[in-house]
Amino acid sequence: MRPAWSIIFFTTMSGLGLGLAGWIVIGLLPLMTQQAVIGVGVVTLALIGAGLISSTFHLGHPERAWRALSQWRSSWLSREGVLAVIVMAGLAGWFAAGYSGTIVPAWANLLLLVLIYLTVYATSMIYASLKTVARWYHPLTPVCYLMFAAAGGLLATLAMLALLGLPITAALAQAGIVLMLSAWGVKLAWWRLAGMARH
What we know:
The chain is an all-alpha fold. The chain is built from six helices and no strands. It has one domain. The protein has helices at about 5-25, 35-55, 75-100, 105-130, 140-165, 170-195. Helix 1 (about 5-25) crosses helix 5, helix 2 runs antiparallel to helix 3 (about 75-100) and helix 4 (about 105-130) crosses helix 5 (about 140-165). About 35% of the residues are buried. The mean pLDDT is about 85.
């Protein structure tokens, strides 16, 4: 299988944006000023939005993509779309609260975090549910998506900390390295095991 470039761009950008959002909502990236809230909010939502928009380019009729949202009972693509819309709305509200100085309750942060990773999972299941593609139809496919979203998001968070002039502890930097290496370990296992499943 050679997926379209739009799919590769979509999974990379949306996964990176969602992973970044996940670390932000649990407080790993303190946004101390309104300018920081705006900057980080724009980057995060732009990454997720760019990924979602690019995902429509490989469709026969991209202008009809909105109709897919109505098939959420049976389609992982639809579930991903619905969840992504909810997450982006939730993130917009989260950043708006940060801009106004409103404290977001812990339960809301946790709920948003769960929705973020449910969106990543739904994206992975678009491919993991394809029985006709043995390499994708494997239980490690969703694990790869989740791991790379978390790892890529943490590295993006570290980059944001540096850009904002905030301190980066050695433990946090090491966690980023360990998480990325772990993600690649899962990826290598997926390449080996899913590749064997084709034979």
